[in-house]
Specification:
- The complex is a heterodimer of chains A (about 850) and B (about 550).
- With about 850 residues, chain A is mostly beta strands.
- In chain A, about 5% of the residues lie in helices and about 50% in strands.
- In chain A, the strands form 4 sheets. Chain A has a 22-stranded antiparallel β-barrel. A 5-stranded mixed sheet of chain A has the order 1-4-5-2-3.
- In chain A, strand 17 and strand 18 form a beta hairpin.
- The longest helix of chain A is centred in the C-terminal third of the chain and has 9 residues.
- Chain A is globular, with a radius of gyration of 30 Å.
- The two termini of chain A are about 15 Å apart.
- Chain B has about 550 residues and is mainly β.
- Chain B is built from 4 helices and 23 strands.
- Chain B has a 20-stranded antiparallel sheet that branches.
- Chain B is globular, with a radius of gyration of 23 Å.
- The chains are: A mainly beta (about 850), B mainly beta (about 550).
- Chains A and B meet through strand 34 and strand 38 of A and strand 4, strand 6, strand 7, strand 8 and strand 10 of B.
């Protein structure tokens, strides 16, 4: 990259000869849009720094040209990522190389983790060298919850809306096997660098009918460039489509970056920009603040009594100290991330006449009866915290005359602690945000505190090296590494290991010709369970002993016994993943274009999913006394109870039972630029197949279990093998970029095809598909296949009920989006965008339909204001 | 069937439907539709002809307005050629190559405008105001290419709106969703248009693309009417210059797929839904749940162009034939019932341009266009409604210098014929109209810049038959009769404007104000004809560079 005052930065790729000198003329322009060599798409064949796995690199030019409100919009430049309208409409979680699947009878069938949750949480987001984590996000109503907060990402990935696109300098997306440096992931890693350099202040504003956004970015150096201070601010608001929702999402973000460089490296190395000497000591400080507020007030034309509110705020402080040693670098990273999360939901619910207790401890209670409509409201007050530190030693390339040399060696350790200080889940107990949960055995949820949950304490150590072998045109690179990830069982790093995993990883690359690159990678990865999974809420069971409901309210009597069970699983540990990929790249330069193809096969085993564990509770039955009608008295129970009967219950417990397989192929073809038309075409796409299932049993439909619990005539219910869900989809994206440097004009047309999408549920659902049965005592009795036709199992040979083998084919469809960027007023930029230009709406087949996001359009104006700050 | 025969007066009159587009001021140049009058107040009329968004086989019926200013300070004088006449993109590079003083043009403007008044049709908004930005320009690209582009971004408020959420309710298609309320509405629009042309192997090759998107919603009203529209259009063309008499021949094809989606959510305020289907009395449907309507249009046209120079006059002729298919659905389902409107049309345009003396230039533009269509209702089989429309218009533009003043004069006239026959209602409309219009603008160059002022006017009247009010049932008396009375009424419109230009180092700062009014020349209250006046104003500030 070339920078000169008064001109736009100019990036020019070139190949440096092994000997001699190299001269290149680099034209500069006042406005980036006037640069001949402007590239506004991702570099799909690039490599992330220090990584050999398949990666896409999105630099500042491409980010600036992408109409995006947040990091998620920028990631649409990756192959196989569906286009979405720009804005803050919905929680933005991102999954690499994975699809959502149906929840039928899989782990997500009754409120557990879905394939989308698992893959989103397994996609690591690294912001300025420090992972972002969603592990301590408890903004969820749990497995039994009914009124689900619409904007929550608990259990899934980080909400990318917190990262404004305007703050991004460079995004490296490691889609393949990340190096051992990165942990707590299963899918890949997205390495995000924010803007931190001296730059003229730049003001940008965006407006569309639903989104308004403003950004100010500027940086200044002091003291002969020893200090650089950069400020990035963003304010954005998106209102939902007014005919569907009253919701509006507002984001504010401020980032202050400071870099202090002191001295020069003892070995005279240059820094990454290739022009300035590497400092002896570099201190990178970052202070990030964000607020993301979702507000959907009541709107009578949509739903009476319904409100949703969510306010997430966070302050993140990073400090990275790099000390240049003779031939190596020592880097210490310390980060503290503190957030407050507040969710408030209200709904108008109606419940049947029900015995009720608000008891918070175990024991018998004279309850009350509740019935009819009421306003159910709750709040979730969370305060996730994360403390992260990493110490890394990075050895410079060994100088060697031999064909084989070590290009890089890294050794590091990581410590991480996550916890939640929040007040927790709160609501009026007599107006629970649940109506369907209670059945005379299962109870309603009770409020809980989040700060009771045990912290998530982890440590890791890693080492990797990059070997380079060259002979003639042949160049081979190998990056082996290993990582040890440890989940501790206590509250500090000095406690023992609850779960640990050794994760060997290797990436290899061979270039027999300058235009050909063959590569492959394989490795093990792991993902931590979340705090919510490690410390789930206690489950309440309110067994109705007496349910005497008379016309006269004074004579009614409800007796309820409360039991509390802890569903936490001491065996819950790391989910394990195995990643494999292989591919090739052909690079014909500007004359022939480039092609990159990658096959991948990722497997996750032991993902955290819910399992229903049967158990039993004793229900006491009492005789009643003084129950004459008309007495005006509720009567009384006669102790001791007449008898006790077993009531089966089911504890929803997180286990390492999920299986998630993702396989597919990605490709990117960059066609040579048609100079006469000043047009470049790039085709990228991916075919991905996701298979999700659990190793755990499936107890059948919830309604059947509810009947089994309360109907003492039903002595047993069958259980089955868990079903498997499969999704498959091909997305091909055509990007046509027409560039007129003389006019400072860039027109980008993006056509995305969604092809061959199907969703399938694979299950055995014939009358002999049951594996065994559950007794009223909560025992699991297996029935061998050979005995399932026996007469004594006739009651079990019923239709499974909750799932069936089915394949749904979603119609093929396409979307076209258009963007026009034009230089204005010298160094400014005016951009128009139209998402879904043809307003494609709903596409039907005989059995399914696909709805496209509606047309969205807007304009963005960027105005550099050089000179306002005086310095550079 | 009873009919009322209306006759109208003189040669200087025409009827209000003559306007080429929904709100377009009278001109023989082509133009893409705008929603309402304030939106098109600040551009020279001739610059609209090349728009790929120009309608195909359709005739949106606008309210009468006075012509736009010739734009002595705002824009270059009219340019001859098939691109600016009909949007034939292959001709763009050569059209501009012949104009030595206009090889580069660019302007940016900010605009405020408004219009209100009682003189309007039932589905025109009561009052509208708009704030927006626009820009246009052209420049050479490389050695043999030319690019031209234009954008408009604006936000319009309708207070009150009308009984429909549709952006342009008065088009040839007889289908329209209306309701019983006129809530305040906000509309946001972005329009992008551009064309690129160059010389390749001796051929002029070009393409143009246009896109207009809107989103609208009600506000401060106890029901929700929301919607959006997307109107993409494109054209490609080629032409060949022959070595005698400056002959150029070419061809082009253009296409568009506008779609508009509207959702009426009558909660908490129930409303009544009136689906208009021609002249049949709409069924009044009390609604309590959302009503969805979506109109999808596909239009294609192909044309040929020819130009030559003889006796110092550049003559350009274009001819185009096109077709339009509109499907209207009321449900989101696999195979919904559809209202269908199918139309075919043709359009011939001619232009002559020559110098008159040393200081004057005369441009004459004429157009002859017509189209026919038929409609099938979703609730009936067979053709329920047919309509035809024809229009012939001519416009003279003379501009030059006189005694230190720059002068521009525009004069023109148009004849139209509209016939529509509803077989279900057994009612028909047969209206012939005539319109004259003219404008005068004077500009004076000063030491620091220039100033200009001008006036324009238009007059219209018509003769023909429309259904008598007594023949119409209550809803049509409210929604249809005033519109028909407007069509056959006599009206006049006047406008005044002033423009100032201040030269700066890097260009020219432009500011302008415009005021206009329209009113019936003769009131016919027994026909439920709209009365009163309608006024509009606009203020713009911009730069030309």
């Amino acid at each position: 990259m070339v920078r000169r005052p008064g001109y736009a930065p100019s990036r020019v790729p070139f190949t440096m000869p092994s000997t001699g000198s190299f001269t290149i003329d680099i034209p500069l322009a006042v406005n980036t849009l006037q640069l001949q060599q402007l590239i506004v798409t991702a570099d799909r064949t690039g490599r992330a720094r220090g990584e050999l796995g398949t990666a896409s690199v999105i630099d500042r030019d491409a980010i600036a040209n992408q109409i995006a409100s947040s990091l998620q919009g920028v990631l649409e430049l990756l192959p196989g990522v569906p286009l979405q309208p720009p804005g803050l409409d919905a929680a933005a979680q991102f999954s690499l190389r994975s699809l959502a699947t149906s929840a039928a009878a899989g782990g997500g069938a009754f409120g557990g983790s879905s394939a989308a949750d698992i893959s989103a949480s397994g996609t690591l987001i690294v912001l300025d060298g420090v992972p972002l984590s969603n592990n301590a996000n408890l903004q969820s109503v749990g497995a039994r919850g009914e009124v689900v907060p619409p904007a929550s990402t608990a259990g899934g990935g980080v909400d990318l809306r917190r990262i404004p696109a305007s703050a991004l300098e460079r995004v490296e997306v490691i889609r393949g096997v990340p190096s051992a440096r990165w942990g707590d992931l299963t899918q890949g890693a997205i390495i995000v660098d924010t803007r931190a350099a001296a730059m003229a202040p730049e003001f940008a504003a965006r407006f569309d009918p639903r989104t308004s956004e403003g950004n100010i970015v500027g940086g200044r150096s002091f003291a002969s460039e020893e200090h650089v201070l950069t400020l990035t601010t963003n304010l954005a608001q998106t209102a939902a489509l007014s005919s569907l929702s009253s919701a509006a999402t507002t984001r504010g973000a401020v980032q202050l970056a400071h870099r202090w460089r002191r001295g020069t490296a003892p070995d005279g190395r240059l820094s990454l920009d290739g022009r300035t000497p590497l400092a002896r000591l570099t201190l990178d400080s970052r202070v990030d603040w964000f607020q993301l507020r979702y507000d959907a007030p009541e709107r009578l034309d949509i739903e009476e009594g319904r409100t949703s509110f969510q306010d997430d705020r966070g302050l993140r402080i990073n400090e990275r100290a790099r000390l240049a040693l003779d031939g190596s670098t020592l880097e210490l990273t310390v980060s503290y991330d503190g957030q407050t999360q507040f969710t408030s939901e209200a709904r108008r619910l109606t419940r049947p006449t029900t015995p009720f207790t608000d008891r918070l401890t175990e024991g018998r209670t004279i309850g009350t009866f509740v019935e009819g409509p009421y306003s159910a409201a709750y709040t979730l007050s969370g305060a996730p915290r994360m403390l992260f530190t990493r110490l890394e030693w990075d050895r410079n390339p060994w100088e060697s005359e031999s064909a084989l040399r070590i290009a890089q060696t890294r050794v590091g350790v990581e410590l991480r602690r996550e916890w939640n200080n929040g007040a927790g889940y709160d609501f009026a107990i007599d107006k629970p945000p649940q109506t369907g949960t209670f059945n005379g055995a299962r109870g309603y949820d009770r409020p809980r505190r989040f700060d009771d949950a045990a912290p998530l304490v982890t440590s890791a150590a890693y080492a990797d090296t990059r070997l380079l072998f060259s002979r003639g045109d042949w160049i081979a690179e190998l990056q082996p590494g290993v990582r040890l990830s440890v989940l501790h069982d206590g509250t500090s790093w000095f406690s023992g290991a609850r779960s640990a995993m050794l994760e060997p990883r290797v990436n290899a690359q061979l270039s027999p010709r300058p235009w050909l690159r063959l590569r492959a990678g394989a490795g093990s990865v792991s993902k931590l369970p979340t705090i919510a999974q490690l410390s789930p809420a206690q489950q309440y069971f309110d067994l109705v002993n007496v349910n005497r409901f008379t016309p006269d309210p004074r004579e009614r009597l409800a007796v309820v016994t409360t039991f509390i069970r802890d569903p936490s699983n001491p065996d819950l540990g790391l989910a394990r993943g195995a990643k494999r990929e292989g591919g090739f790249e052909l690079d014909g330069g500007s004359k022939f274009g480039a092609l990159s193809v990658t096959w991948f096969n990722d497997r996750i085993r032991g993902a955290s999913t819910l399992r229903r564990d049967p158990s039993t509770l004793p229900r006491d039955r009492y005789a009643l006394a003084d129950t004459a009608l008309g007495s005006g008295q509720p009567g009384r129970i006669v102790d001791p109870p007449l008898f006790s009967e077993p009531v089966p219950i089911f504890l929803d417990r997180y286990v390492n039972g999920g299986r998630l397989d993702n396989r597919g192929v990605e490709f990117v073809a960059s066609l040579p630029t048609i100079q006469s038309l000043r047009t470049r075409v790039e085709i990228g796409g991916a075919t991905v197949e996701t298979v999700f299932g659990t190793d755990e049993r499936d107890l059948g439909p919830s309604t059947r279990l509810a009947e089994f619990q309360v109907d003492t005539q039903v002595q047993r219910v069958p259980y089955f093998a868990g079903a498997t869900s499969r999704s498959k989809r091909t997305i091909i994206t055509w990007r046509v970029v027409h560039h007129q440097p003389e006019l400072g004009l860039v027109i980008t047309g993006t056509l995305q095809q969604r092809l061959g999408e199907e969703r399938q549920t694979l299950t055995a659902n014939d009358s002999l598909s049951f594996l065994g049965y559950v007794t009223r005592e909560g025992e699991l009795i297996e029935v061998p296949p050979s005995e399932r036709t026996a007469p004594q199992y006739a009651d079990l040979r019923a239709a499974r009920g909750d799932t069936r083998n089915a394949i749904t084919t979603i119609p093929n469809d396409w979307l076209l989006s258009l963007q026009v960027a034009k230089s204005v007023l010298g160094t400014g930029r005016l951009s128009f965008y139209v998402f879904n230009t043809f307003d494609r709406f709903v596409t039907f087949t005989a059995a399914a339909a696909r709805a496209a996001p509606s047309t969205r359009f807007g304009v963005e104006l960027t105005l550099p204001t050089a000179g306002l700050w005086g310095g550079r | 069937m009873n009919r009322t025969l209306l006759t109208a007066a003189a040669a200087l009159i025409t009827h209000a439907t003559v306007a080429q587009t929904q709100d377009t001021p009278p001109t023989a140049w082509g133009r893409a539709p705008d929603a309402h009058a304030p939106l098109s107040a600040a551009a020279a009329g001739w610059l609209g002809g090349w728009s790929p968004l120009r309608t195909i086989s359709d005739a949106p019926r606008g309210m009468l307005r006075a012509p736009l200013a010739p734009g002595l300070l705002d824009a270059p004088p009219p340019i001859a050629g098939a691109f600016f006449l009909s949007g034939a993109p292959g001709a763009l590079a050569r059209d501009l190559a012949t104009v030595a003083d206009s090889t580069r043009f660019g302007e940016l403007r900010l605009r405020l405008a408004g219009a209100d008044g009682d003189y309007r049709r039932p589905l025109d908004p009561g009052a509208s105001s708009v704030a927006g930005a626009s820009g246009q320009g052209w420049a050479r690209v490389g050695k043999r290419g030319v690019a031209i582009g234009r954008f408009v971004v604006d936000r319009e408020k309708l207070e009150p709106s009308s009984n429909t959420g549709r952006v342009t309710p008065y088009v040839s298609s007889p289908f329209l969703a209306t309701d019983s309320v006129t809530p305040p509405m906000a509309r946001t629009r972005a329009r992008l248009e551009g064309a690129l042309s160059g010389d390749l192997f001796g051929f002029g090759i070009g393409a143009s693309v246009g896109l207009e998107v809107r989103e609208h919603t009600t506000y401060d009203f106890p029901l929700r009417r929301a919607g959006r529209s997307a109107h993409p259009a494109w054209s490609v063309g080629a032409e060949r210059a022959l070595p005698w008499y400056g002959v150029r021949i070419g061809a082009y094809a253009r296409s568009m797929e506008p779609v508009e989606t509207d959702i009426l959510s009558p909660r908490p305020l129930p409303t009544i839904y009136y689906p208009i289907r021609g002249f049949d009395e709409p069924i009044a449907v009390p609604i309590f749940d959302a009503v969805f309507t979506r109109e999808q249009r596909r239009a294609h046209a192909a044309g040929a162009t020819g130009a030559f120079t003889v006796l110092g006059t550049v003559v350009t002729v274009t001819h185009e034939r096109g077709s339009l298919a509109e499907d209207g659905v009321l449900a989101v389902q696999a195979n919904p019932a559809k209202n269908l409107w199918r139309a075919t049309g043709r359009e011939t345009r001619a232009q002559l341009q020559r110098a008159v003396g040393d200081d004057w230039r005369l441009t004459v533009v004429g157009v002859d266009e017509s189209h026919d269509g038929d409609a099938v209702r979703l609730d009936l089989e067979g053709t329920a409604y047919v309509a035809s429309h024809s229009r012939q218009a001519i416009e003279f533009d003379l501009r030059g210098s006189l005694a230190g003043w720059r002068v521009a004069v525009i004069a023109g006239g148009a004849m139209t014929a509209r016939r529509a026959d509803d077989f279900v209602a057994q009612l028909f409309v047969d209206v012939d109209g005539a319109q004259t219009f003219g404008a005068l603008e004077l500009a004076r160059d000063l030491r620091w810049g220039a100033v200009a002022t001008g006036v324009s006017g238009a007059s219209s009247a018509a003769s023909g038959s429309v259904p008598a009010v007594a023949e119409l049932l209550p809803v049509n008396q409210r929604l249809l009769a005033p519109m028909l009375a407007y069509e056959v009424g006599e009206a006049r419109a006047l406008a005044w404007w002033a423009t100032g230009a201040y030269r700066v180092r890097w260009g020219t700062v432009l500011s302008s104000v415009r005021y206009e009014t329209a009113a019936p020349a003769r009131e016919v209250p027994e026909l439920l004809q709209p009365s009163g006046t309608r006024t509009g104003w606009s203020v713009s500030l911009g730069v030309r560079y």
